[in-house]
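Hello again,

I reread your note about wanting to compare the complex against the isolated chains. To keep things tidy I'm splitting this into two emails, and this first one only covers the full assembly. Below are the input lines as submitted, including protein chains and any nucleic acid or small-molecule components. They are followed by the predicted structure of everything together. The single-chain runs will come separately.
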Amino acid sequence: MDSVKEFKIVTLGEGRVGKTSLTLKFARNEFHDNEISTVQANFIQKDVQLDGGIQVRLNIWDTAGQERFRALAPNYYRQANGAVIAYDITDAGSFNKVKAWVKELQSQADKDISIVIAGNKCDRESERQISAQDAIDYANSINAAHFNSSAKSGKGVNELYTEIARRVYAVHQKNAKANPQLSNSRGGRRVRVTNDEPQKPKNKNCC
Amino acid sequence: MGNSQKGTKSIKQEYLKLIEKKKRKYFKKNEAIIFACDIRRWKEFVLEEILDALKLHPDADWPKALEKACRSWKTVNDNKYRSNIVLFDYLQESKPTSNNSCRMRRTIIKVPDHIDNEQIDFDASSIFDFLNGHFDQSTHFIGNMISIFHHTFYTKNSYILSITPEESYQRLTQLLHISEDLIKETKTFIMIVLQTMIYYYGGLLAKKMQENPSQMYDFILEKIINEEIHSLLLHAYKISRPQDYLNYTLKLQSLENITCSDLQIDPMFCLDKPNNIHFNGYNYAIEKVREIEMVFTPMKKLEIIGNTTDMICGSVDEYWKDMPDIDQNKLVIDGDNFLSIYIYIVIKSGVRDLKGHIWLITQLARSSIQNGAMGYYLTTLEACLIQVETLNS
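Full-complex prediction:
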């Protein structure tokens, strides 16, 4: 049986847009509130069920959003399969930061990185500063998905993580087809276990 | 011969027949794997690996010493280790599935006294436990290889231990690549040992390795990276980058009085309040970071980093435990606070070689850890060091 495929997902976005809360909301079912007081929500591992009974495991890396830690971000997104970029729908500036993150990922992250944009705090619709259509159009223009989300109500949270899981898995499948099983490149003398007919030694020195 | 003796003999023969049948069945089933490689020629194959290493590292002494030892090695004593792995696997397969430990057999084969009183434990719970006992024996080829590497690698390079970072400035061109060279040699040796394991033990071990490659890699690393090799590699890193080391040391000194609030940590997590004399703050986590100097392998170092994270949460819990009405949502440590707390702990731990330890982990740890929890904590530690260098006292 194949083991569950794991993917690294990094959560990016300006400070205070609700990145940690989003991750925590997504993983909340796995926490036991009575047993945990301090919640360390920076690395979360959660399995997601995709169509066709496929199960994938997301390793979600939370990042520091404050400007003083900006230069450290590449350490976190290197080798990431996917990125959830969050902004606060009540803060236009945080949406501009999304565009900066996308540019940075496109130039510095893995070329196959999948992106999902989360318009967070959608429970505060009346304070919205970013038009939902503008955000969707932007996401479409960069081949990303967009979701309105609320870590408070839970709206859109599962959907956005399921979408990133679906996307990273699709990329994985595409790459696996393009690069089938790599052959052993370490030379003929070295050993591989195969189902081929064995070459029996003359003296069997075995039980 | 009485009737009862005849009866016992007949039962014994029946039993032996049964065992023989089981062995044949096991052997037939696993024949393809056992003979996936020509195990008779293992020494020849290992020698070729060593000769490759000699070409890669012509100035190193250990490949030459290994070549000499390999050529003169008498393989007769190795047979017991090599055939016993098949026997061990057979016994593992024939073990009853019941977990009732009272009924479990404990079979220890004691080799005659003239062979160094060695014991082979067939009751080992895993292949790694079983192999563990092999490597300490002087008659075991791979154990002997590792001893030779330890001795020659250390003897050849121990001169670097007397060079201080200050002195290394004058010899910078000579020492610039010392850490890269030594780590390359170490990695070559690790690969030789892994490959030798397959030649030596045959396809059965290759299959076990394929089933669990990371565990086998960690197992081998435990054997190879001992205290002396660890100190050499760490020191090589230090003297090949003396400026980095001295700058970081000075930075730690200048920041030794830093507080949580200086680092803009959320007040909920500022546990270093001077009026709280009964509380330990982050001291357990700080002590834990210091333990990184006392362990040698990447996995053990990573475990310490993981434990430090647990201790951060534990310290916050301890601090707020007498305040039951506290809003639990406020006790969520987000990315910014987590990184800031880690920076505080790293500074207070005063581990000057932390960069060297991280370098050792990244050089030697298996790549599969990179995207998991261990990878996250390691990245955070790397990020801390970058951040510490930019902080002003």
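For quick reference: Chain B touches chain A through 61 residues (CB under 8 Å).

B.
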